[in-house]
Amino acid sequence: MFTVVYMSPSMFLYCFNFILHLQIISLMKRLTYLHIFFICSFILYSCQKCKDCSCTQVASQSGMPDVTQTFEITDVCGEELEAMEQTTVITQTVGGITQEIEQTCDCY
User: Fold this and answer.
1) How confident is the model at residue 29 (pLDDT cuts 50, 70, 90)?
2) Which CATH superfamily does the domain covering 50-107 fall into?
3) Which residue, among 43, 48, 104, has the nearest Cα to 71 in the 3D structure?
4) What angle is formed at CA 84 by the lines to CA 80 and CA 87, rounded to 5 degrees?
5) Would you say residue 102 has pLDDT above 80?
6) By the 8 A CB rule, do 68 and 58 touch?
7) What is the rounded CA–CA span in Å between residue 106 and residue 108?
């Protein structure tokens, strides 16, 4: 058995607006949380990350023993950090004498 309840058009509109209002509030809360998440993510991503690096250079020259030296660099940031984390090899030849310098850095 069903009971039919008559609802006037104005009462129906009132209920419909109330439910719509609740849905809008819920959506706004979700969007606010989403905005906060993206703002925090952007701030954390844009922070400059700096590291300390421990480097080793090996200089090889034809007819001579290799020379190895180590050094440390602190607070390396940005593009310099990207360049430091790669192995760099420089080769020079002058008057038949070849010199090769290889630099490797471990950044932590």
Assistant:
1) confident
2) CD59 (2.10.60.10)
3) 104
4) 145
5) yes
6) yes
7) 7
What residues does each domain of the chain span? Answer: 7-47, 50-107
What is the C-alpha to C-alpha distance for residues 106 and 86, in angstroms, rounded to an integer?
A: 9
Query: Under 8 Å CB-to-CB from 38, ≥6 apart: which residues?
Result: none
Q: In what order do the strands lie in the sheet with 64-77?
A: 64-77, 50-61, 97-107, 88-94
* pLDDT tens digit sequence for 51-84: 999 999 999 998 899 999 999 999 998 888 888 8
Q: 3-class SS at 95?
A: coil
